[in-house]
Write a structure and sequence with these properties.
This protein is mainly alpha-helical and about 140 residues long. The protein has a single domain, classed as Rossmann fold, CATH 3.40.50.2300. Helix content is about 45%, strand content about 5%. The protein is built from 6 helices and 2 strands. The radius of gyration is 14 Å and the shape is globular. About 20% of the residues are buried.
């Protein structure tokens, strides 16, 4: 969901040429699967394009290729740190920190509440985009 929301924000502001946006899993449970039907439905409700996507697990090569690695919750952050050699280049961030919060974004796979997750994702993505526009050459 975050990938689609952030890509939509970037596209609407004409900034897509400044970004490569993708998502990865920290676990293997959903590898190869498309976005959850609840995410697809929520994106349709709000008019955001669902891009072709299949779940893949994050790798060290991803760490080397991207400037920012964003996790949704404390569990993601713990897994990312473990998988990515304790973040030697300080690229790991929890999404809602960009909105001034240390809250976790609840996984709608477990909660079933795609509306609440969407609201949190939008809040985090808005904060992230603002941060990048203020701190990067965008």
């Amino acid at each position: 969901m975050s990938q689609f929301v952030f890509q939509d924000m970037v596209n609407k502001q004409g900034l897509s040429d400044h970004f490569t946006i993708d998502s990865r899993a920290t676990s293997t449970e959903e590898i190869g699967n498309p976005p959850h039907r609840g995410t697809v439905q929520k994106m349709r409700e709000v008019g955001i394009t669902v891009l072709p996507h299949r779940a893949t697990q994050i790798t060290w090569q991803d760490y080397q290729n991207f400037d920012y690695i964003i996790g949704m919750d404390t569990w993601n952050m713990r897994n990312l740190n473990r998988m990515l050699k304790n973040d030697p280049d300080k690229k790991l961030y929890k999404l809602l920190t960009f909105a001034g919060s240390d809250r976790d974004i609840a996984d709608p796979w477990y909660t079933g509440n795609f509306d609440e997750t969407y609201d949190d994702v939008v809040e985090g993505c808005e904060g992230l985009l603002k941060y990048l526009k203020e701190n990067e050459e965008i």
